Amino acid sequence: MKKYQAVLYDIDGTLLDTIKMNMIPLQKIIQEELHENRPYEKVLKFASYLDKKVMEELSIKNPKKTMPAGFNTSMRLKKGLYLILLM
């Protein structure tokens, strides 16, 4: 069995750029549920909100059904970090 020397755990977006992974699907939800096209910059205000709070703020009628709709975009390592991880 292989032993690891370290485990990287990232919950605040320090290592992985997860903002687009959440905001782009939210744009899709807004478009499908509210029939609005909100620019990415306007959706960014929800970046620090919990999912339940976002659904309440947007007055989404059925959040449990709506939320999984588009959460499948890619995430990326922060620029320059791959050099550190390859060492």
Descriptors:
mainly alpha, two-stranded antiparallel sheet, 2 strands, 5 helices, elongated, 43% helix, single chain, 87 residues
Q: In a few lines, what is going on in this structure?
A:
The protein has helices at residues 19-34, 40-43, 51-57, 63-66, 81-86; strands at residues 16-17, 76-77.
Report on this structure.
The protein has helices spanning 19-34, 40-43, 51-57, 63-66, 81-86; strands at residues 16-17, 76-77. It is mainly α.
Percentage of residues assigned to helices: 40-55%
DSSP E strands, number: 2
Main sheet: which strands, in order across?
A: 1-2
SSE string, helices as H and strands as E: EHHHHEH
Describe the SSE topology:
Elements: E1 16-17, H1 19-34, H2 40-43, H3 51-57, H4 63-66, E2 76-77, H5 81-86
Antiparallel strand pairs: 1-2
